[in-house]
Design goal:
By secondary structure, the chain is α/β, with parallel strands linked by helices. About 45% of the residues lie in helices and about 15% in strands. Helix 7 links the parallel strand 5 and strand 6. The relative contact order is 0.16. The protein binds pyridoxal-5'-phosphate. The site of pyridoxal-5'-phosphate has 17 residues, from helix 4.
Amino acid sequence: MDKVYYFDNAATTRVSPEVMEEISDYFTKSYYNPSSIYTPAQKCKELVEKARKRVADAVGADPKEIYFTSGGTEADNWAIKGIADAYGHKGRHIITSSIEHHAVLHTCEYLESKGFEVTYLPVDEDGLVRTEDLLAAIRPDTILISIMFANNEIGTIEPIEEIGAIAKERGILFHTDAVQAAGHVPIDVNKMNIDLMSISGHKLYAPKGVGALYIRKGIKIKNLLHGGQQERGRRATTENVPGIVGLGRAIEDAVSHMEEETARQARIRDKIIDSVLKSVSHCRLNGSRTKRLPGNVNISFEFVEGESILLLLDMNGICASSGSACTSGSLDPSHVLLAIGLPHEKAHGSLRLTIGRFNTEEEADYVIEKLPPIIDRLRQMSPLYEQYLKENGEK
Ligand code: PLP
């Protein structure tokens, strides 16, 4: 099996050829430390500033509001801990959702251990936060609302503009983890009243190990990393110049091709969803049908285990996921699928296929051809399925 059918773009993306070409010089030729004063190093500094402008332009921010990080996890940690640290004297209550990535959830749990109180909002059956729940959770001591832009497992896009408006009206800071959304759906931090926003490079065809945190001008935030004066004194460590240049190029490319690329991915997504739901019995789509990332398919199959599906797909060269990449390896059902109301057994049988820029219609056809017989084969071996057939007089 030589060809790899990569349908796990929410876990990570390939570095695009354009990004690769743009960054390659900065490993071996123009490798200088941007803080040094000699001319070649100053050129590196200019490149970092050019990338900052590209990231800012992509989300409607000012370049001075963009701070480079090592990825989405650091951006989430910095946003939430940094705000808790800076505004903890005003209030010690934070609101988030129950379907956040662990980079947010575990950070909130850490803050709980430090005496903060956190409300984890429930979501509806599509994974959407209800604004009435948010309004009911707000207290006089609420200092931060952190709700993800789009979910990494089920692809649901949250009502960010409405949440931003509520936060602004109540004078509460609003952070959004836009790791799965940036470069994939339109973002305007001003229109959406976003105060802090996390971005990651390796979800949009830039290298791993680079990301950014947008911090609205005027917001106080404590540093996460202490050391040198990089990033205007807010984030120490020598800049990852190739990564930063790559992020700038990747996000600019993504935004300039967004309209046609999202339409193309959504077409492939819908083809897979429609075909699988039609040809396989006892399965359901997880997440919203309409408020959905263009590249996300997440389907639960009854009577089978997600891990077994992955194994058989892998034998056919198809790379997919049964939960978020960070939790695969654990046998616990996904907290996101449980939060949208799936019982354990259905949550266990879920499959996530995430489409990216390099996936073709032909590759989707291959998945559509291979998947139904795999489910069928697994069900033939499933005692749960046998029991179901007996109970329903089908055997
Ligand atoms: N937030 C979300 C929604 C994610 O999907 C991920 C990665 O899967 C992260 C945060 C963490 O990003 P990174 O891998 O860049 O640390």
